[in-house]
Specification:
By secondary structure, the protein is an alpha+beta fold. Among the domains are: 94-209, no CATH class; 289-393, no CATH class. Helices cover 41% and strands 17% of the residues. The chain contains 14 helices and 15 strands. The protein has helices at residues 10-20, 32-39, 47-55, 64-74, 96-121, 127-144, 149-155, 177-187, 218-233, 238-245, 249-258, 314-317, 358-375, 387-393, and strands at residues 42-43, 78-82, 88-92, 146-147, 162-165, 173-176, 191-196, 205-209, 236-237, 262-266, 269-273, 289-292, 327-330, 333-340, 346-350. The protein has a four-stranded antiparallel β-sheet with strand order 12-13-14-15. A three-stranded antiparallel β-sheet has the order 1-3-2. Strand 2 and strand 3 (88-92) form a beta hairpin. This is Winged helix DNA-binding domain-containing protein. It comes from Streptomyces heilongjiangensis. Pfam families: AlkZ-like (PF06224). GO terms for molecular function: DNA binding. Keywords: DNA-binding.
């Protein structure tokens, strides 16, 4: 008979979450590189999320903005690029080749084919013309160092060409060549997002030529990425892994075999951990609270979330597309949400009273004040608004 699988309950998973996600007091990090390395990827679709996610996990958050900007734009130890599920993330620079090899190559081929198809249907120029334009744009970008799409169009006017897509469909529209082409080049790993035009909350980015990286075998890269994430976020189910990576189930299973993942029993069924992570984890000496931003990588980290997020809380905390809003955490569970009002006040509301006492209220209030202090005069409105955030923030839809 085979060896019995160890059961890992929800309470232990929440303990692992607090330490592995740098949220419990003793696990907080010294800098943004430590945070990104521990979480593997920071959601970058909303620029403010990167900074708020880092600040929530730093022992001393006062220099969150300065240190994160240094890592992103001066030292380039963190890179903003397309990754899993065709989403923009911030990764440790050392992972760019792994992300590109594991995920980017397949998505890039699909995106380029889609662009060429849309252009052909619209009667736009052909692939040879597009190739000429992109090489010209990349040359201009290398010369400038960083540039917006509009600036690149000054050097290569053909980037301003417009074409219609999805004619006759509810989502029909018009794209410029620059909008679609720069997106394709980003997924292909040839360009990355650069410094924004405005503050750290700005969504208007410059572009930069991507740093060179080796081309990795797809299976090797997938094993490496899945191993890194499972070490940080395990245990996880096959459904969690398929959802987080965006891969086919056959690719997930191949990578699990390649890294020698160990099976454990979860309330959801079979889960997996990396070798050496099977042993029980001791609960932290002190409870912890956290205020995490919209699209935070912890709140969005798993497909099956009941062990840290009660289903009845979903309507208040998520939008219709499945994007999570700002969340309040207590000891590894989502217990409410928060928002910033126009005057800068951080307001929060509990959505459950289960296990919430005076100690929890005090700890959450301290986290709200901690957040308010380092955000300062900056006003943050999530890119994807959720029902509770709209209500608490008082800024309308």
């Amino acid at each position: 008979m085979g060896e019995a699988r160890r059961y890992v309950g929800a309470a232990e998973r929440r303990t692992r979450l607090g330490a592995g996600q740098r949220l419990s007091g003793s696990a907080r990090a010294a800098g943004p590189e430590e945070v990104a390395d521990s979480l593997v990827a920071l959601h970058g679709s909303d620029p403010a999320t990167v900074y708020l996610a880092v600040g929530a996990r730093l022992a001393e958050p006062g220099r969150t903005v300065a240190e994160t900007e240094r890592a992103l734009y001066t030292d380039r130890t963190l890179v903003r690029m397309h990754g899993m599920r065709h989403t923009v993330f911030v990764f440790p620079a050392g992972l760019t080749a792994v992300v590109h090899g594991s995920t980017g190559i397949t998505v890039a081929a699909r995106e380029r084919a889609s662009l060429l198809k849309d252009m052909a249907v619209a009667g736009a120029p052909d692939a040879a013309w597009l190739k000429e334009v992109e090489e010209s744009a990349l040359t201009a970008l290398a010369r400038r160092g960083q540039a917006t799409a509009a600036e690149l169009a000054e050097d290569e006017p053909r980037l301003r060409e417009r074409f219609a897509y999805a004619a006759g469909k509810p989502y029909e529209g018009v794209h410029t060549v620059s909008t679609r082409l720069l997106r394709v080049l980003g997924v292909e790993g040839r360009v990355v997002r650069g410094r924004p035009l405005g503050s750290w909350t700005s969504s208007q980015f410059r572009w930069a030529v991507a740093p060179a990286h080796p081309e990795l075998d797809v299976a090797e890269a997938q094993a490496s990425l899945l191993g890194r994430w499972l070490a940080a976020c395990g245990p996880a189910t096959e459904a969690d892994l398929k959802w987080w990576t965006g891969w086919r189930v056959t690719e997930v299973r191949r990578a699990l075999t390649a890294i020698g993942a160990r099976a454990v029993t979860l309330d959801e069924g079979t889960g997996y951990v990396v070798a050496g992570h099977e042993d029980p984890v001791a609960a932290p000496a002190e409870p912890w609270a956290a205020l995490l931003p919209a699209l935070d990588p912890t709140a969005m980290g798993w497909r099956e979330r009941d062990w840290y997020l009660a289903p009845e809380l979903l309507p208040a905390l998520f939008d219709r597309s499945g994007n999570v809003g700002p969340t309040v955490w207590w000891n590894g569970r989502v217990v409410g949400g928060w928002a910033q009002r126009p005057d800068g006040e951080i307001v929060w509301r509990l959505l459950t009273t289960d296990g919430i006492g005076t100690e929890a209220h005090q700890a959450i209030a301290e986290e709200a004040e901690r957040l308010r202090a380092w955000v300062g005069e900056t006003r943050v409105t999530p890119r994807f608004r959720t029902p509770l955030e709209k209500e608490l923030g008082g800024r309308g839809a």
